[in-house]
């Protein structure tokens, strides 16, 4: 068996190593355009910021090791230029000598990844405007910073853009972010990103949301970014993090099927429309695990797993790729933001029915020093309670909860299963009722109709006259510090003696800071015969939706 692999990083290197572990006899050729294989793309921003001090640490596995340990024929600085499917050959160009030659294959694995987008706007190719994909990009950015950068503009507030922002700030560079959407981290639902936007502001980062960079200009003082609104931003360094597009040219030229957004089409075994050609990683179209529709999700974990699966299938193991959930995490200053499965906006777009709840628990027991708050948003099927998606933002412990929920989604679990989950607990690690259990209790209570709820967005979309009677059950001090418009304050501990102050001809919507006292109030009022709902996530969720008014 002779296997040629195009692309030697996440998907390609995983496929190569797996193939060798499955067959000592196979001839395995790993062709990589760049000078490095198997490097840590995900670490690049952190070497720029100085957190990862040694550049060498990013070279996870070097070509010599791939040769010695896995007996791979690694050809760096070599580009696969074309595929001849009939002859089952590829044309390879040795970039050092410019020599071209043919190489035959029995099976071909395409793992060429995705290239950063560079929109065709005036000035886009000026020196000082960078994208970040590999170590050479990183070196160029670092060299520019070392030359003295006072001001930087990062265009695009996605994962890579924000990681760059954090690292530029770490270096003392005054940084501005420009983002087309009206929120940072667009894969998340907007309200979940409020703490991130606040953290950026607190760290001195200027944020231009709902803005686009329409042109770049070189002046005698440095670069200038011209925004659509007419604003101009000076900078000595500009980084673009506006997304990626699959490197599909080889596949398209060879007549392989690609999806509408350019991802190479594969079946569950990761075979392209040619059964002798497999494709993995950022270059492919995957099945959305929750919605079961084709999509593109460029992430390292899926690329690595797909590499293994392609090799398994080549050696007759018949393994299916289950689809991609989009489990992802960002660290931004003291916050983490993580998500898995479908967001609310994706569910809405797909017209998939859902219910949702918010909770704002601490990562561990409140009485143990150092507890940090997080917000979890859980989306689930309104009938079965099956978990469809989750997002978390906050301090410590967000990663663990989103990972648990990622497993729940993969296992097809429901919110009723979350109630019953038994998770590791001691006061410094969690709570006897873990945030996962809490989310389960709240969501299951909603589906059982023990605990009717309304979400902030639906509530505030009503006209003031349509809205329920808004009852704030916090303390007068908390109420004075900020509350829902037109709400009335009756602390939960006084509620039983002040029922006469509540309307009997109108629904009551109770709320507190995070939803817990609101829940107690809801249970009291329900049993006293009132029509009542709890506002999910309480005033904290209101603040996340309407940071400017609260
Ligand atoms: P790549 O790793 O991009 O490898 C493809 C390789 O193929 C490239 O080296 C390219 O040179 C080579 N190639 C392309 N065409 C040819 C050709 N014709 N001939 C020869 N070689 C070719 N994901 C996460 O999950 N978490 C993170 O924290 C994270 N952080 C990231 C940070 C940065 C700065 C970047 C750039 C990406 C990050 N990612 C992260 C995404 C992750 O790195 C990718 O999803 C993953 O590397 C995709 O693997 P891949 O094998 O498909 O492509």
Give the C-alpha Rg.
26 Å
Judging from the principal axes of the Cα atoms, what is the shape?
globular
User: Helix content range of the residues, please?
Assistant: 25-40%
The number of helical elements comes to: 16
Amount of beta strand: 15-25%
Taking the sheet with the most strands, its summary is: 5 strands, parallel
Spatial order of strands in the largest sheet = 3-2-1-7-18
How far the N terminus sits from the C terminus, by CA atoms, comes to 65 Å
Mean pLDDT: 97
According to DSSP, the number of beta strands is 30
Low-confidence stretches: none
User: What structural class do you assign from the helix and strand content?
Assistant: alpha/beta
Q: How does this model look, in words?
A:
The chain has 550 residues and is an alpha/beta fold. 27% of the residues lie in helices and 25% in strands. A 5-stranded parallel β-sheet has the order 3-2-1-7-18. The protein has a 5-stranded parallel β-sheet with strand order 9-16-10-11-12, with helices on one face. A hairpin with a 4-residue loop joins strand 14 (222-227) and strand 15 (232-235). Helix 1 runs parallel beside helix 8. The protein is globular, with a radius of gyration of 26 Å. It binds flavin-adenine dinucleotide. Flavin-adenine dinucleotide is lined by residues 6-7, 9-12, 31-34, 41-42, 44-45, 79-80, 111-113, 132-133, 160, 247, 250, 281-283, 298-301, 303.
């Amino acid at each position: 068996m002779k296997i040629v692999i195009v692309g030697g990083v996440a998907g390609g290197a995983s496929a190569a190593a797996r193939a060798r572990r499955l067959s000592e006899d196979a001839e395995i050729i790993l062709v990589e355009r760049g000078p490095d294989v198997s490097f840590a793309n995900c670490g690049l921003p952190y070497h720029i910021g100085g957190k990862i001090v040694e550049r060498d640490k990013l070279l996870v596995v070097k070509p010599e090791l791939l040769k010695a340990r896995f007996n791979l024929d690694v050809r760096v600085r070599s580009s696969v230029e074309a595929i001849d499917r009939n002859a089952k050959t590829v044309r390879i160009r040795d970039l050092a000598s410019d020599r071209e030659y043919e190489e035959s294959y029995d099976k071909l694995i395409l793992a060429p990844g995705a290239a950063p987008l560079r929109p065709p706007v005036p000035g886009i190719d000026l020196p000082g405007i960078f994208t970040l994909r590999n170590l050479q990009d990183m070196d160029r950015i670092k060299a520019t910073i070392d030359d003295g950068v006072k001001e930087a503009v990062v265009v695009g507030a996605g994962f890579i853009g924000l990681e760059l922002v954090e690292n530029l700030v770490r270096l003392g560079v005054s940084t501005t972010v420009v983002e087309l959407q009206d929120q940072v981290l667009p894969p998340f639902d907007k309200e979940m990103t409020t703490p991130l936007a606040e953290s950026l502001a607190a760290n001195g980062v200027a944020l231009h949301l709902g803005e686009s960079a329409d042109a770049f200009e070189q002046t005698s003082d440095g670069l200038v970014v011209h925004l659509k609104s007419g604003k101009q931003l000076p900078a000595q360094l500009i980084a673009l993090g506006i997304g990626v597009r699959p490197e599909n040219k080889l596949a398209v030229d060879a007549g392989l099927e690609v999806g509408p957004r350019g991802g190479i089409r594969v079946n569950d075994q990761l075979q392209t429309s040619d059964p002798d050609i497999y494709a993995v990683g950022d270059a492919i179209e995957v099945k959305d695990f929750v919605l079961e529709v084709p999509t593109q999700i460029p992430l390292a974990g899926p690329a690595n797993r797909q590499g293994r699966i392609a090799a398994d299938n080549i050696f007759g193991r018949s393994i299916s790729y289950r689809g991609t959930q989009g489990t992802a995490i960002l660290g931004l200053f003291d916050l983490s933001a993580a998500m898995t499965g479908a967001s609310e906006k994706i569910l809405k777009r797909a017209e998939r029915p859902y219910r949702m709840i918010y909770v704002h628990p601490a990562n561990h027991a409140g009485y143990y020093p150092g507890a940090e708050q997080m917000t979890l948003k859980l989306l689930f099927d309104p009938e079965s309670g099956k978990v469809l998606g989750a997002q978390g933002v906050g301090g410590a412990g967000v990663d663990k909860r989103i990972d648990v929920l990622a497993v729940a989604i993969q296992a097809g679990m429901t919110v009723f299963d979350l109630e019953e989950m038994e998770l590791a607990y001691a006061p410094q690690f969690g709570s006897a009722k873990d945030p996962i259990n809490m989310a389960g209790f709240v969501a299951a209570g909603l589906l059982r109709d023990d605990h009717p709820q309304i979400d902030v967005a639906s509530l505030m979309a009503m006209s003031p006259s349509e809205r329920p009677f808004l009852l704030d059950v916090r303390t007068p001090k908390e109420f004075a510090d900020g509350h829902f418009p037109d709400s009335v304050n009756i602390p939960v501990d006084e509620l039983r003696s002040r029922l006469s102050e509540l309307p009997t001809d109108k629904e009551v919507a109770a709320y507190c800071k995070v939803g817990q006292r609101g829940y107690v109030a809801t249970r009291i009022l329900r049993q006293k015969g009132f029509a009542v709902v709890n506002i999910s996530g309480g005033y904290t969720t209101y603040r996340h939706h309407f940071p400017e008014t609260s």
